[in-house]
């Protein structure tokens, strides 16, 4: 099941893992293929002690796991691999702070939206082919298409964040320029915009105001805006 965490604990645990540049380089290396300590040390140019320290820390958080594998040149060695599939998103601007950690493996139990559902069906068809050599070319094409869609989504997301920022600036100007420029009025507007997905009643909980007072403020704002 996909896990979405918006509390500080879930976000902090991921940030503590990726805030260090050495760890990020190790994660990038392990994203390509599983590897072992000596090989990571040589490829990244870090000491074995430093690599071992960060691998142990990431194994403690569950980001990395290890297993003993046979070595062609001697005794078994410990092989490390990425153990979690994570997307971390943090947006902040005036009147905006949103942080989210999503684990996307295994497949979430939800109805896939349009294009995602189509890609899923295409992948399922390719995976059902019995011959391995007949899968490589369509899989490569599918991965390229998925990467293109992800890039388009990120571009659109950037534009929407920019437009949201512009809209919030206009809200601030409108509220600040009218007679209803007190703390409570601004609090209602900001809370409504920032918390709209939680519903009207949930949004007002953080303001410690009664429903009647909130409705009166909104009516006044509607007249002025």
Overall helicity: 55-70%
Sheet/helix structural class: alpha+beta
Average pLDDT figure: 77
Low-confidence residue ranges: 196-201
Radius of gyration: 25 Å
Fraction of residues in β-strands: 15-25%
What is the annotated CATH architecture of the largest domain? Orthogonal Bundle
The CATH H-level superfamily of the largest domain is Winged helix-like DNA-binding domain superfamily/Winged helix DNA-binding domain
CATH class bucket of the largest domain? Mainly Alpha
Instruction: Give the termini distance in whole angstroms.
Output: 43 Å
In total, how many domains does the architecture comprise?
3
In CATH, the topology of the largest domain is named: Arc Repressor Mutant, subunit A
Describe the protein in words.
This protein is of the alpha+beta class. It folds into 3 domains: 3-82, Winged helix-like DNA-binding domain superfamily/Winged helix DNA-binding domain (Arc Repressor Mutant, subunit A); 111-170; 178-224. 59% of the residues lie in helices and 17% in strands. It has 9 helices and 6 strands. The strands form 2 sheets. Strands 1-6-5 form a 3-stranded antiparallel β-sheet, with helices on one face. Helix 3 crosses helix 4, helix 5 packs antiparallel against helix 6 (136-177) and helix 7 packs across helix 9 (211-224). The model is unreliable at 196-201 (pLDDT under 50).
């Amino acid at each position: 099941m996909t896990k979405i965490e918006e509390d500080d604990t879930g976000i902090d645990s991921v940030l503590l893992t990726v805030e260090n540049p050495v760890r990020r380089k190790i994660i990038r290396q392990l994203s390509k293929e599983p590897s072992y300590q000596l090989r990571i040390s040589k490829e990244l140019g870090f000491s074995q002690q430093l690599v071992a320290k960060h691998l142990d820390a990431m194994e403690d958080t569950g980001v990395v796991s290890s297993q003993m594998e046979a070595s062609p040149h001697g005794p078994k060695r410990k092989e490390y691999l990425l153990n979690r599939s994570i997307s971390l998103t943090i947006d902040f601007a005036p009147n905006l702070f949103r942080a989210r950690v999503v684990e996307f493996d295994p497949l979430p139990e939800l109805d896939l939206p349009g294009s995602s559902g189509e890609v899923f069906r295409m992948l399922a068809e390719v995976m059902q082919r019995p011959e391995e050599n007949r899968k490589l070319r369509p899989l490569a094409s599918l991965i390229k298409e998925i990467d293109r869609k992800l890039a388009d989504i990120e571009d659109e997301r950037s534009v929407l964040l920019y437009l949201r920022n512009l809209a919030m600036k206009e809200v601030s100007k409108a509220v600040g320029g009218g007679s209803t420029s007190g703390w409570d009025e601004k609090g209602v507007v900001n809370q409504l915009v920032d918390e709209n997905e939680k519903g009207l009643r949930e949004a007002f909980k953080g303001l410690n105001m009664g429903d009647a007072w909130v409705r009166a403020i909104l009516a006044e704002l509607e007249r002025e805006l």
